[in-house]
Amino acid sequence: VKDIETIKQHLDNQEYKIAVVANMSSGKSTFINALFGEEVLPAFNHATTDCATFIYSKPNIDKKAIVYFSDKRKPVEIIDNIEKEIKQYAQKDAECENKKHKNVEKIELYYPFKNLQTSSSEDFSITFIDTPGPNSTGEDYKQKHKDQTRGVLNDVDLALFMFDYTQLDANLSSDEQGLWNTIKKRHDKDKNFDVYFLLNKIDCALDDNFKDIDTKDKDEFIELKKKNWNIHEKIAISKLQKAAIKHGVSEPKIYQIVSEIQLLSRDNNINWDEADKLDTFQKSHFKRLFGSEWEEKFIEYMGVVKLEKDINEYINTSVKDKILKNLRYLSKDDSIT
Description:
Blueprint: H1 2-13, E1 15-22, H2 28-36, E2 52-56, E3 64-69, E4 76-78, H3 82-89, E5 104-110, E6 125-130, H4 139-153, E7 158-164, H5 168-173, H6 179-189, E8 194-200, H7 204-210, H8 218-227, H9 231-246, E9 253-256, H10 259-266, H11 272-290, H12 294-302, H13 304-331
Parallel strand pairs: 1-6, 1-7, 2-5, 7-8, 8-9
Antiparallel strand pairs: 2-6, 3-4, 3-5
């Protein structure tokens, strides 16, 4: 009966849910902003998102946000200054200057992604969920965020499990927050549940790759950088792959991404300092090394475009096939036509 109800819900709602989960400050909100192509969700170096944000995105959708409260207040609909207002409602209660921004249970955001397909032939919607980091400081917040993240994980079809390259060893050596355990249980219980692993801030590996290069000869410098290209990225991916297999994901799909730089390259509203940061990064690591092929190499290294394409293809093929397979299975039952 549960299986039949689940399939019926998929068919009636035609909705596929994708959650981004990670420990605090791994870059989830920045990653989703990179998918938007502009800064919509609040994203800073400290814990930012205090509640789950459900993103409903279709081409040419009317932009708005609806905020729901745990104290049973009437939901608030935001149409103007969405990006500014969300920053107020998404923060911790202790940091809110106005009490109207407190006790937020969840936020629904209607906003189009840049490239990620959000419907299939206009009949298959995707809900994207940004979850709060479960290891936020403070016991009350910590438990609240754990409960929210676990609840979301038990309800989604695909989890994007994000790791910070600079904190990878610490995140792999401990599962204090229970994310690995929750995903393993869901993966074991539901064969239709999938997980992609995202290794964010992978550009920090560039410093590890090139830190021992010591030469003033420009040509030799370029050759040494090419020789050391992707060394530490591969090491990190191998560590994450072993951890995933250990936790029951036999063939883990791992993507290395650079959310912050990808966002800067897409956002038309960046300031001069951000433009200089983007230009310096591209010039130092791509334009000087790869010449006319630098842009292709840059897009490949950012990883977000490949992830978008793979999710789009996955939705259009595997997800539809799973639904059809379930329908064919059910049609064999005399009680279902």
